[in-house]
Amino acid sequence: MKTLVTVVVPFYNEEENVEPLCAKIEEVFSGLADDYDYECLFVNDGSTDGTGARLDAAHERNPRIRPIHLARNQGQSAALVTGMRQAAGEYILTLDGDLQNDPCDFPAILELLKEYDCVCGYRATRRDTWVRRVSSKVGNAVRNWMLRDGIRDSGCGTKGFRRRCVDYIVPFNGVHRYFAAMVRNGGLTIAECPVSHHPRVHGRSKYGINNRLWRGIYDLIGVAWLRRRYVDPKVEGGE
């Protein structure tokens, strides 16, 4: 029997990237068809351009693609958690919707998910501005120092999960940077995997120094507190 994989992608004003990403995902899974079937949950995070219409058109061409339209823009974390909670697949794969992540990394991640609960991609060669690269390096170092999650690139959108990981993710604005910390805190296993990263061609980044640095510090303090207060009660005789 084939294993069902759910691909979750958040989109916010990425209309030019929808069709190329669909084509790449379809191509990758055509090469995995002997072992895997797939569904795509593409979450339209309140886009104000033609992203929603492009997603609906993609569904008409390929029923495996299912758009989820949020009523208003709520951020990347809300879009990802929404999709992950509705996933039917045993494995969940995530990407950003800007074409900087590449579905060609899916086979390596799926292979690791046979052994690990969560696989976090890291951008071995990052195709971003020096400001973003430096700020990311500093942010990752501080996060790892405080949380000890052992992940070198929390901002990488390419990740893989066994479905049970979703139960350990506490939803809040910014949680996508702390998926690994929450999964590890639940006692689940994590591996890292080098992944591709491409320059942005269409659209523009939604992140800058102000909405990454200061909010990141605030979130980090909250997650560190939550990690110490987390409870995972076990029932006697249960699994």
How does the SSE layout of this entry go?
Layout: E1 3-11, H1 15-30, E2 36-44, H2 51-61, E3 65-69, H3 76-85, E4 91-94, H4 106-113, E5 118-123, H5 130-147, E6 159-162, H6 179-185, E7 190-195, H7 209-229
Parallel strand pairs: 1-2, 1-4, 2-3, 5-7
Antiparallel strand pairs: 4-6, 5-6
Description:
This protein has 239 residues and is α/β, with parallel strands linked by helices. It has one domain (3-229): Alpha-Beta Complex (Spore Coat Polysaccharide Biosynthesis Protein SpsA, Chain A), CATH 3.90.550.10. The chain has helices at residues 15-30, 51-61, 76-85, 106-113, 130-147, 179-185, 209-229; strands at 3-11, 36-44, 65-69, 91-94, 118-123, 159-162, 190-195. Helix 5 runs parallel beside helix 7 (209-229).
Short note summarizing the structure:
The protein contains 7 helices and 7 strands; from the N terminus they run βαβαβαβαβαβαβα. It is of the alpha/beta class. Helix 1 runs parallel beside helix 2 and helix 5 (130-147) packs parallel to helix 7.
- Percent of residues in helices: 25-40%
Report the CATH superfamily: Spore Coat Polysaccharide Biosynthesis Protein SpsA, Chain A
Characterize the biggest β-sheet. Answer: 7 strands, mixed
**Reported CATH architecture:** Alpha-Beta Complex
Low-confidence stretches: none
Report the average pLDDT across residues.
86
Strand content: 15-25%
Main sheet: strand order: 3-2-1-4-6-5-7
Helix count, DSSP H or I runs of 4 or more residues: 7
Distance between the termini: 25 Å
Please identify the structural class as seen in this structure. Answer: alpha/beta
If you compute it from the alpha carbons, what radius of gyration comes out, rounded to the nearest whole angstrom? 17 Å
- Please report the total strand number as a whole number: 7
Q: What is the N-to-C order of secondary-structure elements (H for helix, E for strand)?
A: EHEHEHEHEHEHEH
